[in-house]
Here is the input.
Amino acid sequence: MLAAREDIRDFLRREPVSVLVEVTGAAGSTPRDTDAWMLVSERASFATIGGGQLEYMAIDQARRALRSGLAAEPMNVPLGPEIGQCCGGRVGLAFTALSPVVARRLITRSDREMAARPHVYVFGAGHVGDALAMALSLAPLRVVLVDTREDELTACTVPRIETCLTAMPEAVVRDAPAGSSFVILTHDHALDFLIAAEALRHRDAAYVGMIGSKTKRATFRNWLSREVGQPDLFDHLVCPIGGTAVKDKRPAVIATLAAAEIMTAALSWVANRTKSVAEISR
Here is the structure.
């Protein structure tokens, strides 16, 4: 399995003289919350605190500090017409010069955030699978493209995803963590059915979807009842993926529609789990 990592390490190597900008307060309507941060050097930036005039002001403040060699003063910015940003809230910002200690903290934080991302397993590295992996690659998800065919995985050039070559895709489902999403679109309907049945048994799945037509959906339902003996599992399947409102079979269109669907399910699962844990701990 080839792991992909966002390039904070590369940025730190390229831009060792930088300033860390952190959102320390977010009252009212704001672009980001207090988990947002960014790094600013003289010629580049990494991550975002929400964009717009607020971010331009923060970058200017950080670069003035870099040029002067002095510490940047904190900012408390009302997001109103006077700065051309009409969110209506107020944002507090802190500025910290990059040091080895700060760099290690950012790497640890970034790794922790990456590790906590919901998993999305895309089974099938064909046209739609590649397009879906591409559509999901910019989202805060851990995307794994799974296939039984080495040449198809080798041909995939989507950045920021992992690939998994396996003769038994259903075993990948069994080993998947809670909150995983499974999207099934292999080159073989029988293999689709096998993976889908395994995924539907994964009671902690955030999403199980399979590409297909009305005929495939009906065939799978009959197969599930006959071969697995658990027809109720079918109620948890999304098929076809991406909905039926848009009648367009182009891979990029299917992938875009499905990506929004998967993202909603994955983040909703995380939010519900976090809420449940918080209620239990009270």
User: Anything to note?
Assistant: The chain has nine helices and ten strands. The first helix runs from residue 8 to 14. The two ends are 40 Å apart (CA to CA).
